[in-house]
Amino acid sequence: MRIAIVHGFYRSDVPSGENVAVTAQVAALRADGHDVTVVAQHSDDRMARSTWPVEAAVTTITGHGPDPTAELAGAAPDVVHVHNLYPHFGTRWLDRWEGPLVATLHNFRPLCAAGTLTREGRRCTDCVVGSPWSGVRHGCYHGSRLATLPLAVAHRGGAPVHPVVRRADRLVAISERTIDEYAGAGVGRERFAVVPNFVPDPPAPAARDGQERWLFAGRLSGEKGLAELLAAWPAGRGLDVVGDGEQAAELKAAAGPDVAFLGALPHDVVRALPGHYRGVLVPSQWPEAGPPLTYLEAIAAGTPVVACAGNGAADDIARYGTGVVVGRTPTTTEVAAALDTVLARHDVLAHRCRVVAAEMYSAASWVGAITEVYRDAIDLRALAVTGG
């Protein structure tokens, strides 16, 4: 099958599970024998220009901007798979492209300027049930009312008429939670297929030393929930924090002596870490579009996960038994009990993690599921063209 992937890559200095997932998906499709063309824009290139803020605002509001159709036409794909267009690609080309088109909704950007459905650490659907101008009032995108304004203008019609959502022949969600959120905003459930992300080349089981240490890996920002976790972290339990972000200084100041901040590390280093820890912590406060990459890499290494209720990892733990779920804002007693449970049942949980990763989150299962979606999109587009 000839497949074209369209993706705007986020900054390389900011950890992006979406970038990692797209790169892995391209490699998996090629390994399966498909002819894959990648049409990309990169934040590292575009943000270096002094005119970038104006370009991004104009593209977001008007839909005019970089247009991939010339490259797509040259590739003559059987299907186009769109990941992230914002804010690097225009959207006007979507209606001009006549071929089958699939879109993965990695986050909640068509519903929420922040893309997370949270504000100040709490769930927020003001822009879904009310008006996107709520996001402007609160400066939900990067803490700026001015930066949020283009998104509010672009999303004023709601998710069902968002250019990507409206045009796609098939929509891909990485969890049922994503479908629930979009269906609640008026997007038909029947348009979705659930295709979870995967972990390529899971690491071999690592030899853990006798120390009790736990791992958090991710961006140091409010929606990741590390502040809430540190407030409840039990004394005497070692925690390593990998990552960087706007909350770094604040979190370091609030952390106790048992918490070590290791800074940002390359992804190939980070993905090898979970196997050396007793468990991985996923305290995210935003609902997440699905199980995060940190969680998938942990269970692939046979490392149990402790997650806060309401996020994508917690959903998966409740479904498959790959760790322990604590409250959304847990107490110290609750966190300590969860850590003790993981230690007491570590061998059983580790085995369960590896089984779930192999059965549910392998490259082979992803390729099989996504190619079925591609075939559906091709059939649906053929019906639409013939008036069926």
TrEMBL record:
InterPro entries: Glyco_trans_4-like_N, Glycosyltransferase_grp1
CDD domains: GT4_PimA-like
Keywords: Glycosyltransferase, Transferase
Source superkingdom: Bacteria
Pfam families: Glyco_trans_1_4 (PF13692), Glyco_transf_4 (PF13439)
Segments forming domain Glycosyltransferase subfamily 4-like N-terminal: 18-199
PANTHER family documented for this protein: SULFOQUINOVOSYL TRANSFERASE SQD2 (PTHR45947), TRANSFERASE (PTHR45947:SF13)
Name listed for the protein in its UniProt record: Glycosyltransferase
Species this protein is from: Actinomycetospora chlora
